[in-house]
Amino acid sequence: MISRRLIRIKLVQVLYAYFTNEGSSLDKSDRELQKSINKAYDLYHYFILLIIKVVDYAEERIEIAGNKKLPTFDDLHPNKRLIDNKVLIQLSNNRQFLNYISASKLNWSDSPDLVKKLYHKIIESDYYQYYMNSDKHDYEADKQIIINIFTNEFEDWEYLYQLLEEQSIYWNDDIEFVVSMIIKTLQKFRESDESPELMELYKNEEDREFGKLLLRKSILKHQEYRGIIDQYTKNWELERIALMDVLIMIVALTEIMEFPSIPIKVTLNEYIDIARYYSTEKSNEFVNGILDKIVIDFRKENKIIKTGRGLLGD
End-to-end distance of the chain based on CA atoms, in angstroms? Predict the structure, then answer.
């Protein structure tokens, strides 16, 4: 589930903390990186649980309406399409999901207002009205309504962002990515699957080791790569160069020089983009210009070695 893009972002953030906080150590930074990555996986399950709790809330409303002293026809004959949603039933009974929720002790019991607000956001939407009133009652329609909820209701919802920020300092940067991973998960669901698989934390063992190794090499070799950066920025006033820009370039150089199987173009694109979102307004242009000069010179001097299929001419 965790992409290398997200690992790189979290690594740069951890590295910034390492160089700005007294008492930081390599082992402490490694633990912080792993904790940050694990919290993203928590959020993946936490959001799935939130949808389940919203449906539980909808079912409670139906029960309350049916128990009125003078119930209406609609109270006694409610539309139960959402609470009978086959995909939600699969999620609610998913062993992998239930085991994770139990072990992590994630719950929304302290956030009833959020559940209520999300419920009302959903039922006021056009896609919900279409789903509830459509003649098309099949598994794909059940899947699409859940995808629509994640697509439309989670991102850029300030109330949700504030609540998550109060619960964990790690989550606000993860929301968009986690939502996209949930959507990818749902797209793979099939009606015939009794307990469809959720995504694993890492795609493979190589990705699991990637962040840990890159962090350690970036810290252990930062003086060497900082020296290279200083040579290529000697016409700049060093105190005016943002620390985040320097750290981004250090990590980028570490990846270029120490990870022969990763194409240079991939590395450059990733860190230039990170600079765009996590440093100053013009950082991406600055980082791009400096790294480009270093790579051109290092290629001429045969200092960069790339191996593997398709990388010989990288």
Answer: 27
Helix (H, G, I), strand (E, B) or coil at 116: helix
Task: Give me the domain span that covers residue 50.
Answer: 4-187
Residues of the chain with pLDDT under 50: 310, 312-313
The pLDDT assigned to 312 comes to 47
Whether 143 and 235 map to the same domain: the answer is: no
- What's the pTM value of the predicted model, to 2 decimals? 0.92
Q: What is the DSSP string of 126-184?
A: HHHHHHHH-S--SHHHHHHHHHHHHHHHSTT-HHHHHHHHHH-TTSTTTHHHHHHHHHH
Q: Record the tokens describing residue 41, joined without a space.
A: 């996986």
Show the tokens assigned to 27.
């082992």
Cα separation, 296 vs 314, whole angstroms: 11
SS (H, E, C) 239-284: HHCCHHHHHHHHHHHHHHHHCCCCCHHHHHHHHHHHHHHHCCCCHH
Q: Is residue 76 part of a domain?
A: yes
